[in-house]
Amino acid sequence: MANEMDFEKPVLELRTKIADLKEYNEKSDVDLSKEIEKLEHRLRKLEDDIYSNMSAWDKFQVARHPERPTTFDYIQLLFEDFFELHGDRYFGDDPAIIGGIATYHGMPVTVIGHQRGKDTKDNLYRNFGMPHPEGFRKSLRLMKQANKFGRPIICFIDTKGAYPGRAAEERGQSEAIARNLYEMSDFEVPIISIVIGEGGSGGALALGLGNQIFMLENAVFSVISPEGAAAILWKDAGMAKKAAESMRITANDLFDLEITDGIIPEVLGGAHQNVQEQARLIDETLAKSIRTLTSFTKEQLIEQRYTKFKKIGSFEQI
């Protein structure tokens, strides 16, 4: 089956068997309802066992699932009157980041997020969700506009990382990311960041300096991909699974380290199984966060954001 992951194979095989039996049951005079019911019960137990015991590598695979909902999918389900804005006013527009103005439960907000493609053609157009400098400068332009007009900023993070190509470096990739971090630290409006898939390196950080950061249950957040870490540590990208386990990149890991503020549950099997339900689960957390942060004064928002990032990390004195 296309897009299947190794740990999912028993579930997918059983689902196929049940579907075949249901089709045969409808076309024949033989009643297989009891057998189908037993298999469905077995399937539910198998799903619970597999999806509740996923390794870091398993979750990394789910985070990169090609059918996983994108920023635009969630914008359509969570917001109203979305009006997309384009361009950085310096070089051009970057389709790897989308952003604009919308209303959320009647409140004007600015929404920004990485955007992966849905197929090969779309992925090439959006550079597989890896922004160039103009993407980060576009996002900063929209955030400055939001800060000027007092609109909360909501960022969706889903990227393998900032594009490392020559053209991106020539146009100031590192400076663009650093500029976002510098400017975001001093904004007087609430900033909420949600990691919906893969949060990779500086490309993720450029939209991640939020007052509150949340991760979907199967999302990952790391300074480098497991394949990249394995290539550096063991000179073997095939050791990616081992790297993923040691890097502490899962939502549970980041929450335990007090880097993120909460974990948003995912529907069984991953967000791609039921996008509408997943949007509802995000909405519950987002609405609560908005209510909390809009009660802060401008000074409190800046101080809370500063304190949050200042206390991240630990050291041991010898």
UniProtKB/TrEMBL annotation:
* GO function terms (MF aspect): acetyl-CoA carboxylase activity; ATP binding; carboxyl- or carbamoyltransferase activity
EC numbers: 2.1.3.15
Localization, per the record, is: Cytoplasm
Catalysed reaction per UniProt? N(6)-carboxybiotinyl-L-lysyl-[protein] + acetyl-CoA = N(6)-biotinyl-L-lysyl-[protein] + malonyl-CoA
Q: Which keywords accompany this UniProt record?
A: ATP-binding, Cytoplasm, Fatty acid biosynthesis, Fatty acid metabolism, Lipid biosynthesis, Lipid metabolism, Nucleotide-binding, Transferase
Pathway, per Swiss-Prot/TrEMBL? Lipid metabolism; malonyl-CoA biosynthesis; malonyl-CoA from acetyl-CoA: step 1/1
Segments forming domain CoA carboxyltransferase C-terminal: 35-292
Single GO biological process annotation from the record? malonyl-CoA biosynthetic process
Q: What is its main location?
A: cytoplasm
What is a single cellular component term in the Gene Ontology annotation? Answer: acetyl-CoA carboxylase complex
Signal peptide range in chain numbering: none
Q: Which NCBIfam families match?
A: accA, AccA_sub, PRK05724.1
Give the protein family. Belongs to the AccA family.
What this protein is reported to do is described as: Component of the acetyl coenzyme A carboxylase (ACC) complex. First, biotin carboxylase catalyzes the carboxylation of biotin on its carrier protein (BCCP) and then the CO(2) group is transferred by the carboxyltransferase to acetyl-CoA to form malonyl-CoA.
Name of the protein this chain belongs to: Acetyl-coenzyme A carboxylase carboxyl transferase subunit alpha
Q: Which organism is it from?
A: Listeria fleischmannii 1991
